[in-house]
Specification:
This protein has a single domain, classed as 2-Layer Sandwich (Alpha-Beta Plaits), CATH 3.30.70. 24% of the residues lie in helices and 34% in strands. The longest helix has 12 residues. The structure holds protoporphyrin IX containing FE (HEM).
Length: 185
């Protein structure tokens, strides 16, 4: 299980330099200069924060969507993808009180999350980490991570604007948008 666990540690060192850090919804995170991404459980020995999440099984995709995603999506670590975004997200009690099929209806049938996201593949690579199943208190429910080449940042901003205007985002009660650049790649 531990190789599915990732830690994002914000502080004075790391392979990713912070370009901007904005609390989009809810309280901010302490402002940091660098983020390091590690497999397994890492905590911050000094000032800053550490966030943890697990890459998990899909919850919402249906088979046809899964197949389309597999064809279009790129992996992390592409040499040209020197920009990244770490966007931790928490959803409210009303979201978690719904059943799985009710959540799917909001996520896709009403909000078109996958249909919108697909328009931005393959330039944007993504990885979703779940926090709720860790068995320890975490400030967020999801840690979303995206990598892309610098010329694709306007498209990434457009994608975020589309998602943030959707029904799904009415359930988001905390979101911090952290933009990064790779120090070396
Ligand atoms: C790059 C294009 C994107 C694609 C193709 C995409 C696709 C997906 C898919 C397929 C899932 C569901 C996985 C499952 O079945 O469990 C998902 C979940 C999620 N995505 Fe995206 N996404 C994209 C961009 C984004 C962006 C920009 C954000 C905002 C930060 C975001 C936030 C999330 C969150 C928070 C979840 C978890 C939802 C939940 O379980 O309640 N995604 N995404």
């Amino acid at each position: 299980m531990f190789n599915r666990l990732s830690s994002f540690v914000g502080g004075a060192v790391g392979a990713w330099k912070v370009r901007s850090q904005v609390a989009y919804i809810g309280p901010p995170l302490a402002v940091v200069d660098y983020v390091s991404v590690a497999n397994g459980l890492e905590t911050n020995p000094g000032e800053g924060w550490s966030l943890h999440g697990i890459a998990s099984n899909d919850r919402y995709v249906v088979r046809a969507e899964k197949q389309a995603l597999v064809v279009a999506q790129q992996g992390l670590g592409r040499p040209e993808a020197t920009f990244a975004a770490l966007i931790p997200i928490r959803k409210n009690a009303a979201w978690w009180a719904m059943t799985q099929d009710e959540r799917r209806a909001v996520f896709e049938e009403q909000s078109h999350h996958i249909r919108i996201g697909m328009k931005y593949l393959p330039p944007i690579a993504r990885r979703l980490h779940h926090c709720r199943d860790l068995g320890m208190p975490e400030a967020f429910d999801f840690l979303t991570w995206f990598e892309y080449a610098p010329p694709h940042e306007p498209a990434f901003d457009e994608l975020l604007a589309e998602l943030r205007a959707s029904e799904e985002w009415k359930y988001v009660d905390r979101e911090v948008d952290i933009r990064l650049v790779a120090i070396e790649r």
